[in-house]
Design a protein that fits this description.
207 residues; mainly alpha; Flavocytochrome C3, Chain A, domain 2; 11 helices; 0% strand
Length: 207
Amino acid sequence: MKNCMVLFVAGIVAAAFAVSRAEDKPKPPPAKPNAFVGAKGCTPCHDAKSKGNQYATWMASKHAAAWRTLATPAAIAIGKEKGIADPQKDNACLKCHVTAFGEPAARLAKSFDPTQGIQCESCHGPGEFHRKERNLNAADFAEDEIIAAPDVKTCERCHNKESPAFKPFCFKGFVEKIRHLDLRKERTKEEVEAMKCDNKCGIEHPK
C-alpha cells in the first residue's frame, strides 16, 4: 500500500512538471496573414482571352482609375467643399479609392501598388493564398482563399451615402458593367440567367 502511494505521488509530480514544461515552451508564431498582391499579381491566370481576360476588363473599368480620379478637377472641387486639400492624400477619400486601405505593411506584398485604385482584391479579398494554391495545382483549396462572388454588401462598403458622388444603384446593373467571368468554369443556363438584371428595381443603371 505504501509503495502504491509513493508511485501515485510521483505520478502527480511528474504530470505537474510536464505541464510546467509545456507552459514554458514558446508557442509557435501565428500563421502568416493572407497578403494583398495587387492586380498585376493576378495576371498569370487572368489575362488570357480563353480564360475570360479578367485583367483587361478591370483595366477598362472606372475601378482601375479610382486613385487617378482623385486628381481630376471635379474631385479637387469636391474636396475643397469638404475642406480636403489633396484628395489623393486624404484618408476620407483614399478609403474607397485604393485597395487595402489601412492594412498593415505585413499584409502588402512587394508587388502591391496602391495607386492602381480599386483592384481585384477590393472585392475578392487578398489573393496571396489563392495564387499559391493555384500555382501548386492543389486538389483541395482553402475555403476562404478568395471571395468568388462578391455580393451587394461588398459594393455598399463604398457605394453608400458617405460618398459625395453617391447615387442609388442596381447591383446587377453595376455588375453587368464589370462582369468578368472565368470561362474555364462551366455554368448552367439558369445560372447565367440569374446574373442578368431584370430591371425591376426601378433604379437607373450606371453609365
